[in-house]
Amino acid sequence: MAPSMKEHEADVVIVGAGLAGLSAADALSRHGKSVVVLEARDRVGGRTLGREIGGRVLDLGGQWLGAGQKRLARLAAELEVSTFPTYHSGEKILVRDGRISTYAGTIPSLPVPGLVALHLALRKLDALAARLPEGRPLAAAEALAWDDQTLETATQVLISRADVRELFDAAVRVVFGAEPREISMLYFLAYLRAGGGLMRLVEIEGGAQERRFVGSAQELSIRLAARLGGAVVLSAPARRIEQDTRGVVVTADGVSVRARYAIVAVPPALAGRIEYRPLLPVVRDQLSQRMPMGSTVKCIALYDRPFWREAGLSGEAVTSTGPMSVVFDNGSHDGAVHSLLGFVVGQKARVFSERPAEERRAVVLGSLARMFGERALRPVEYVEHDWSTEEWTRGCPVGVMGPGVMTGVGRVLREPAGRIHWAGTETATEWTGYMEGALQSGERAASEVGARLEGAGRRE
């Protein structure tokens, strides 16, 4: 061991200081267990990130508090992080085949047959998702059949109209950061089941985008970490985890932690980059290789005035033209900063990322101008964040399972490997892929490890 290596001992060592890892650490600490949290980045917050833009802190990562996300709401209240409603007053924009139309309400403007087909498709999908036993998708009678096909293949049967499929595919890309052809139908239905249905995942009012955090969602992790004091070690990427019958040793850059148990609270794709001794079971290793992260670039354009609001528009748009799939009004809570937020996702994000920065900026602003008018070409500031280029994230918003993965190796997603337990929003059974899911996963992992610690204590 290098002379400069700092050594720590704790009951539990946790890899990852996002909401999953920090909530697990907080729960264990409140029950009298000692913890050390190792974080690869020089900050906490994982896939949440706040940055001062135009004089206010705006989110470059996860940013919404959804309806029904009780853990997240409770944590925000406990940590005194205020929230405010996402702006959505006015008409929305739909761009299809280069044609622009506006609509009100939750369903885009389509010909009557298209509206009927969309409603029927949503009802069918929600009905299929309801056939999954809660938290146990592999127990569904149709699990193998659904996992054998991609979402794209399944929806070609469920949604006969091309215009409706276009809208559906745009929603899927934003939710997963992936293409329908890359997603297992079973995984998609499990995701719907965990989040309460597709409309709940994509809507503002009554949906996953209902409220935002004052000062960014990252503030939750910052305050949780502060509550843990010196237990959080930054700039310490975990490189190796060794375990035996007595405990675990996690070796990170400049730090070594000996503990009785470990919780790895990072996405499976990143967990698979850690060296394990002894090796993890083959099925677990396969899972980490076959659950890639989605691809998402978040683009924010700031303006001197909210001209879209003045024109009676909500700032929301769905488009099949250009790099972005959806756009939202992203103004600050106090009205001091006016901005539009667009998501470039899936295959478009992978292509977009390879283009020069000035070209990316021009194509995003050009797309906004087609929807909202020429004033969109002249922002006072433009910012983008590509989560696929972050070394310790490698994508956003969530890890995705393709055909055959869930039934083949998905059973070990939450299954401990010896003394190593797993957390992270990918492992959640409620609101998978969201901050609420991260909190649920941290809560579960802490409970599992706490029970083992208590059991060992009684035997002693």
UniProtKB/TrEMBL annotation:
Cofactor(s) needed by this chain: FAD
Residues annotated for substrate binding in this entry? F343
What molecular functions are annotated in GO for this chain? oxidoreductase activity
Keyword Glycoprotein assigned: no
Has UniProt tagged this entry with the keyword Chaperone? no
One Pfam assignment: Amino_oxidase
Residues binding FAD are E39, A40, E426
What are the protein's UniProt keywords? Oxidoreductase
Amine oxidase domain span:
19-449
Which family does the similarity line name?
Belongs to the flavin monoamine oxidase family.
Q: Which PANTHER family match?
A: AMINE OXIDASE, AMINE OXIDASE [FLAVIN-CONTAINING] B
Its recorded name reads FAD-dependent oxidoreductase
Q: Supply the source organism for this entry.
A: Polyangium spumosum
